[in-house]
Each structure stands twice: as structure tokens, then as C-alpha cells.
């Protein structure tokens, strides 16, 4: 009698209680066609409803008698299957970040949807460069900005992928079809990615590497030849040639028949950067961003699996593109907090990339102008190899940064939100028709309304956050959308001295208009960028000089190059220092440094004014001096003193529930248990900083330990307790080495 074969299957339901493999019998007709990672349909539960499952293991025996087991029903129509590496990665994510196996698998697994055979469209120029010049002149005369933008782009690149024209250049369909009608371009349609290797970079077309660049490329080459695997961190200011180094490393990897994944924060995925990769590597470069539909994403995965994609560029989730023979993972702007997932599993792309690379025998290259303290610490302790690029290759100098002490301004009788120096420089730039950016650092801060007599703050009745005053006179909750009329008298003491506190972007705009009547302003914040293209639209307008001053929150300081911006004002530079957050100093330093880097990208030197009430804070002084190491040394001292990451590891546990007592009790129980295991490093439980969102109460506690595995062990013990509970009214979230405290 042939032996019965059993398969362990994870059912695709994301709940702790069903998060374990179930054993099924492999029917004879499927024997031989199943493998680990295969998706199958199985009968589940009392009603035997068909559910999708993923095979995670096989065995010849089962503890459960065969007559109690069910048979696998059929193969699932999802034809992409995970390979063992991806399952291993999911297991690692589950273990290290705390999530169900099903959830971890979903993260690393492409989602199957109806495949909409995506066609890749490319705009192809039919005219010569001289002929284009004529068209450009006409478009200039007619002030046709969109047509002009596309013509300029075509002059530089004879072929431009349509997706980039749509999403990055912001050219409407009518402009494109007009150019087709006029015979300036045609649109080539490729049904699938082409199989032939179409990139033929000859070494002579490439710029000669600087000494600093060459040293990096050569050392990585040597390591690879020797089979030495490392994680590399390149610390180099913007313009120091990091991207060129990435492309050389990728070139080497492709030569060995391997593939590359390049992670770039979505906000920094600019037209210029994308085109550089296209120009160097041709159409085997694929972009994965949030504008791709699920079908298109699936298509891309399929092509990648078939080996038709050499390079995938995208944000965090591009990490999970299934490459058959991955050679390198590059993470640009490594310090960006968007690399940490905000949903379960709360994985960090950097650590996950290192693990993925290990599974493939590949390596990881990180790059940043302001490396995260986490990564730099690992470089300092020898876990990563550190490289530096100290010179700007673009020739233009770093901007001059001055700090304006707003306390002194107040003493001198200046009550405006602009310091005298900033105001003077703004006047100067407006006169010279140069552009200005005003960056309002309002992380962890809203334009809240408070009473000057009793200190009462108007809060959302559903969430534990203050309401923000909008110019239409309404008070709005940024967490749940609750809106109410502004109050005229303090609800607590009846005082009439209750008013909006400090400035939001709208107030800054109003102030600018008041001081410089007629100046054209654009505002970029969560309100104005809502909608699919909001962000790109505003950037494009500013690039096209449709405004003199761009006012915005953190979004304006990332990624984009504005050649004509020669003044950057950083308003309320210290706001982010008040956030209840151990990374407050690091975030402030990064934001100011990035903001400073936005000024003077063109030929004219830039100036930066950093306005603050804390001119002596080390995050501000080092950012103004553009001294990364100085900052790092002070910051790491503080982290070591306080046992914060990276000096130690930290696990945050958040318990939420609509029943306040229930949530508090569960947090207490879990916290006591954690304290039993790790007596010295448990803090809490306490109400979260935001103690309620949408009428759901939040309690949290923290566990610190030098030993990550200890934290994993505690998480496992807590999960064990949770899996045995009978009531599921509360949710529990684990976050390892969190980006924010709860
Ligand atoms: P980063 O990524 O650090 O901002 P880039 O790689 O984009 O730096 O380089 C900045 C500019 O210098 C780009 O315009 C790039 O084309 C140019 N560049 C980079 N490396 C070289 C080189 N070795 N020789 C000449 N120009 C270079
Ligand atoms: Zn009051
Ligand atoms: Zn609310």
C-alpha cells in the first residue's frame, strides 16, 4: 500500500486563532504536482467552504488519524507560487516583527487579481533635435506649458515610457494625442517586456568615476569576487555621486546574470532619477509604484519570475518582487521612515533586505546624506562597511545656513512669524524673480486652539488629539475627520482669549500675502495634495514658475530639484523636537539638513534661514553646520544613556479596544507577564500618547533589551497567552524598534 502524503497548509485568514498550519491529505491525482508555496483550495470549517491555502510543508505521517482529515480539493488558479526562499522570508518576518504567518505570507506574496494584460507604451520621437527646436519655439510663444515640458523631455530622451509621461511629467492625454496627430511622436506598444537583453552599456559612454566613487565600486567588486558578503552604507551628501555608484554596482551584478532591486522612497522617485536608470539599462527596468494597478503589479511579478526583469525600482514593497537570481538590493535614502511598514507586519525594509539578501547570497547597499542613527551605528560597530563620498560632483556649493533665534526676535519687538533676516532675504529674492520655499516643520503638531487664560485645548470628542483650525473657521480632527465650528468663548473658563496657536501652512500663506501683496504662492500639505496627482501637480506648477513661493510641510523637502530656488526658510525648526519620541532629535536633524539641501541646486548659491526657539539644541546647531558626525555622536550618547535603539532593542506593545477597562486589563496582564520574563526592562503599562482614536482606547507598554531574541521570546510568550484567550474584543500590536512611540 502506498504511503499517504500529508501537507501542512496555512489557511488564508488573518487571525491568531487560525494561524497555524492545518494538515490535509494529498489526493492521488495531485501527487507530484504540489510543492511548498503552492496555493491550493481546501475545504475548511464545519460547512467545508472552499478556502485558499498555501502549502508550507509535507510529511509522511500525521498525529491526527487519517479519517479525521480532509483532502486538498484542487490547485488554486493563482499560478504564481512562492518559492522556499519567500516562505523562509515570511517566517523570518513573522518571527522578528510579530504577525500571523498568513499575514507575513501576504506581505511577501503577490496578490492575484484578474490579469489585465498590461501593455507597455512608449512615446517615440520621430523628429530630429533641430526640428524639435522649432516646435519648442512655437510652444513657447503660445505659452503651452504642458506641450513645452514634453517637447523638452523628448529633446533629451527620444523614447520615454508613457507611464513616466503620465505620472512624473504630468502631461495630459490631449497633449500626447496632439503630438501624435502632428506626427512628432508615435506610441509603441509592447505586449510584454522584451526578452532580449537590450542594454548595451559600453564602458566608454560612462562618466569616469571619481576616486571616492571608484574606491567603493572596486571594493565591492573585490568582495563579490571573493564571495565575501557584506552590507554597505554609503554616506554621501546629495550630488556626491551615490546614484552613479549604484548604477555601476548594478551593471556588475547584471553582468553576472543576476538581478537588482532598488528601493527609493516614492516621494523621491523623480522623473530625473527614473530616466537615468532607463537610459543606462533600457527597458528591462521596471518601476513599481502606487500608481500601478493590482493587475499590473501581478504582471510585473510574473515577468520577474520568468526572468524578464533585471531591475525593479520602487518603494518598500518592491522588495518582494520575486527575482529568480537576486544579486543586489540597493536602498537609497536609507534613513526614510517610510521604509518601516506602518501596518502589521511592521517590518523594516532595511533589516528585511539584509535577510532576503542572505537567503539569495546577495548583498545590500544603503545610501543616504543623513544616515539613520541605526544604520550608522551598525557601520561604526563593524556590522556594515562604511563608505564616504565627501565631494559634490555638481560643482555648486552647499548653501549658507543661518539660525534665527525667535526669542531674540520677540525681544526686539518682531511678532511676525518671519524673522527679520528671513523677511529681508525674501524681499531680495522676490525682487530678483528667484524662487523661495518655506518649510513649516509641523510634525507632531497641529494648529490647535487653546485658551490663554486657563490653558484649555479644544480636543476631538472621539480621539485624544487637539482639533486644528482651518481657514474656513472650522475645527477639524486629523485622525477621524470630525468637524465642528470654532469656539468663541473658552468652554472651560468662559474667557474670550481663546484662539488658534501658532501657524499652519494656511496662516503662513496668509502672512506672506499680507507682507508681499501680489506674490504668487502655492501650498503643499495634506489638504492640498489629496487625490491621486495632487502632489505631482503642485510640484509641476512650481517647476513651471507658476508661483514664486512654495509653502509646505515635510513633503516639500524630499527629493525634488528646483533649480531656481535660492532661499529656504525653515519655520518652527524645533517643532519636531517636542514630539514625545526618542527619535525626535534625529528627525529634526534630518528635516533641517534636507531642507537646507533644497536651496541652491542651480547655478546661484542658496541661502537657508532656520528659525527656532531652541538655537542651542544640538540637532539644530549640527544641522545648521551640516555636521553629520557631530550630530551622530551626541545623539548616540543619548540613546546609550537611555537604552534606546540602536544601543538596545525595544519592543512596543499596543493594546486597543472599544471597552476601556477591558483594554487596560489586558495591557496590565501582558505587561506583568513581560515583567516576569524580563524584570528590569519593562516600562508601563500606560495610556498611549494618543489615548483614544475613533472611540477606541489605546494602552501601551515597552520592553527594552540589548538582546533582540529576548524580545522575540517575550513576544512569543505573549502571543501564546493571547492564542488561549476566549475573548477577542481587544487587538494587540507588536512593534519592534518602533519609529514612533505610541
Ligand atoms: P547623488 O545620488 O549622491 O545625489 P548623483 O549620482 O546623482 O549623486 O550625482 C550627482 C551629479 O553628478 C549627477 O548629475 C551625475 O550625473 C553626476 N555625476 C555622478 N558621478 C559622476 C562622475 N563620476 N563624473 C561626472 N559626473 C558625475
Ligand atoms: Zn479658558
Ligand atoms: Zn477625531
* The first-level CATH class name of the largest domain: Alpha Beta
Overall spatial form = globular
CATH architecture annotation name of the largest domain: 3-Layer(aba) Sandwich
Which percent range describes the beta-strand content?
Answer: 15-25%
Low-pLDDT runs: 193-199
CATH topology category name of the largest domain: Rossmann fold
Oligomer: single chain
Biggest sheet: strand arrangement: 11-12-10-13-14-9-15
Provide structural commentary.
With about 750 residues, this protein is of the alpha/beta class. It has 5 domains: about 5-110, GIY-YIG endonuclease, CATH 3.40.1440.60; about 120-190, no CATH class; about 210-390, 3-Layer(aba) Sandwich (Rossmann fold), CATH 3.40.50.300; about 400-445 and about 500-640, 3-Layer(aba) Sandwich (Rossmann fold); about 650-735, Alpha-Beta Plaits. The strands form 7 sheets. A 7-stranded parallel sheet has the order 11-12-10-13-14-9-15, sandwiched between helices. It has a 6-stranded parallel sheet with strand order 16-26-25-17-24-23, sandwiched between helices. Helix 1 crosses helix 2. The protein starts with 5 loop residues before the first strand and ends in a 6-residue tail after the last strand. Adenosine-5'-diphosphate (ADP) binds near residues 207, 208, 210, 242 and 394.
Amino acid at each position: 500500500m502506498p504511503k499517504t502524503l500529508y501537507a501542512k497548509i496555512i489557511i488564508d485568514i488573518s487571525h491568531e486563532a487560525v494561524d497555524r498550519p492545518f494538515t490535509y491529505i494529498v489526493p492521488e491525482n495531485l501527487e507530484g504536482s504540489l510543492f511548498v508555496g503552492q496555493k491550493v483550495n481546501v475545504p475548511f470549517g464545519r460547512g467545508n467552504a472552499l478556502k485558499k491555502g498555501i502549502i508550507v510543508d509535507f510529511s509522511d505521517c500525521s498525529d491526527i488519524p487519517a479519517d479525521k482529515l480532509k483532502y486538498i480539493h484542487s490547485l488554486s488558479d493563482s499560478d504564481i507560487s512562492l518559492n522556499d526562499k519567500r516562505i523562509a522570508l515570511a517566517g523570518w518576518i513573522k518571527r522578528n516583527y510579530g504577525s500571523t504567518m498568513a499575514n507575513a505570507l501576504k506581505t511577501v506574496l503577490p496578490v492575484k487579481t484578474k490579469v489585465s494584460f498590461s501593455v507597455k507604451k512608449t512615446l517615440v520621437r520621430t523628429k530630429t533635435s533641430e526640428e524639435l527646436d522649432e516646435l519648442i519655439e512655437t510652444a513657447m510663444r503660445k505659452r503651452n506649458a504642458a506641450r513645452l515640458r514634453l517637447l523638452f523631455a523628448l529633446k533629451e530622451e527620444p523614447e520615454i515610457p508613457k507611464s513616466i509621461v503620465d505620472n512624473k511629467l504630468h502631461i495630459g492625454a490631449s497633449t500626447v494625442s496632439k503630438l501624435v496627430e502632428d506626427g512628432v511622436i508615435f506610441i509603441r506598444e509592447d505586449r510584454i517586456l522584451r526578452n532580449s537583453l537590450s542594454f548595451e552599456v559600453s564602458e566608454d559612454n560612462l562618466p569616469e568615476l571619481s576616486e571616492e566613487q571608484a574606491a567603493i565600486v572596486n571594493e565591492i567588486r573585490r568582495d563579490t569576487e571573493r564571495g565575501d558578503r557584506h552590507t554597505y552604507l554609503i554616506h554621501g551628501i546629495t550630488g556626491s555621486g551615490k546614484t552613479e555608484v549604484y548604477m555601476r554596482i548594478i551593471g556588475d551584478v547584471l553582468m553576472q546574470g543576476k538581478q537588482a532591486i532598488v528601493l527609493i522612497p516614492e516621494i523621491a522617485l523623480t522623473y530625473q532619477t527614473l530616466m537615468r536608470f532607463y537610459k543606462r539599462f533600457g527597458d528591462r527596468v521596471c518601476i513599481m509604484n502606487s500608481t500601478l494597478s493590482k493587475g499590473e503589479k501581478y504582471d510585473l511579478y510574473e515577468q520577474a519570475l520568468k526572468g524578464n526583469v533585471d531591475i525593479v525600482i520602487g518603494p518598500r514593497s518592491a522588495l518582494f518582487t520575486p527575482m529568480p537570481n537576486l544579486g543586489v538590493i540597493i536602498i537609497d535614502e536609507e534613513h526614510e521612515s517610510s521604509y518601516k511598514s506602518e501596518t502589521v507586519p511592521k517590518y523594516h525594509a532595511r533589516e528585511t533586505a539584509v535577510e532576503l539578501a542572505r537567503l539569495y547570497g546577495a548583498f545590500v547597499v544603503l545610501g543616504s546624506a543623513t544616515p539613520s542613527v541605526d544604520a550608522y551605528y551598525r557601520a561604526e560597530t563593524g556590522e556594515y562597511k562604511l563608505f564616504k563620498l565627501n565631494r559634490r560632483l555638481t560643482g555648486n556649493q552647499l548653501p549658507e545656513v543661518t539660525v534665527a533665534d525667535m526669542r531674540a526676535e520677540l525681544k526686539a519687538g518682531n511678532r511676525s512669524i518671519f524673522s527679520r533676516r528671513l523677511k529681508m532675504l525674501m524681499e531680495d529674492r522676490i525682487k530678483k524673480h528667484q524662487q523661495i520655499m518655506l518649510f513649516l516643520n509641523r510634525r507632531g503638531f497641529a494648529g490647535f486652539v487653546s485658551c490663554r487664560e486657563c490653558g484649555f485645548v479644544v480636543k476631538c470628542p472621539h480621539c485624544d488629539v487637539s482639533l486644528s483650525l482651518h481657514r474656513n473657521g472650522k475645527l477639524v480632527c486629523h485622525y477621524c475627520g470630525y468637524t465642528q465650528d470654532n469656539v468663541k468663548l473658552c468652554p472651560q473658563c468662559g474667557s474670550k482669549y481663546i484662539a488658534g496657536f501658532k501657524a499652519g501652512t494656511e496662516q503662513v500663506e496668509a502672512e506672506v500675502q499680507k507682507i508681499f501683496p501680489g506674490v504668487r504662492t502655492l501650498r503643499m500639505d495634506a489638504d492640498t495634495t489629496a487625490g491621486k496627482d495632487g502632489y505631482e501637480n503642485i510640484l509641476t506648477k512650481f517647476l513651471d514658475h507658476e508661483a514664486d513661493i512654495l509653502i509646505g510641510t515635510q513633503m516639500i523637502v524630499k527629493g525634488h530639484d528646483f533649480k531656481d530656488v535660492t532661499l529656504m526658510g525653515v519655520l518652527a525648526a524645533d517643532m519636531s523636537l517636542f514630539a514625545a519620541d526618542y527619535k525626535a532629535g534625529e528627525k529634526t536633524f534630518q528635516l533641517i539638513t534636507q531642507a537646507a539641501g533644497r536651496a541652491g541646486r542651480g547655478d546661484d548659491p542658496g541661502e537657508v534661514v532656520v528659525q527656532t526657539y531652541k538655537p542651542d539644541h544640538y540637532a539644530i546647531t549640527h544641522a545648521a553646520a551640516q555636521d553629520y558626525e557631530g550630530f551622530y555622536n551626541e545623539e548616540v550618547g543619548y540613546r546609550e544613556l537611555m537604552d534606546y535603539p540602536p544601543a538596545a532593542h525595544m519592543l512596543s506593545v499596543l493594546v486597543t479596544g472599544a471597552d476601556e477597562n477591558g483594554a487596560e486589563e489586558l495591557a496590565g496582564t501582558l505587561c506583568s507577564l513581560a515583567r516576569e520574563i524580563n524584570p528590569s526592562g519593562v516600562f508601563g503599562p500606560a495610556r498611549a500618547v494618543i489615548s483614544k482614536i475613533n472611540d477606541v482606547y489605546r494602552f501601551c507598554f515597552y520592553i527594552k533589551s540589548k538582546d533582540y531574541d529576548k524580545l522575540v521570546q517575550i513576544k512569543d510568550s505573549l502571543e501564546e497567552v493571547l492564542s488561549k484567550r476566549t475573548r477577542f474584543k481587544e487587538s494587540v500590536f507588536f512593534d519592534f524598534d518602533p519609529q514612533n512611540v505610541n
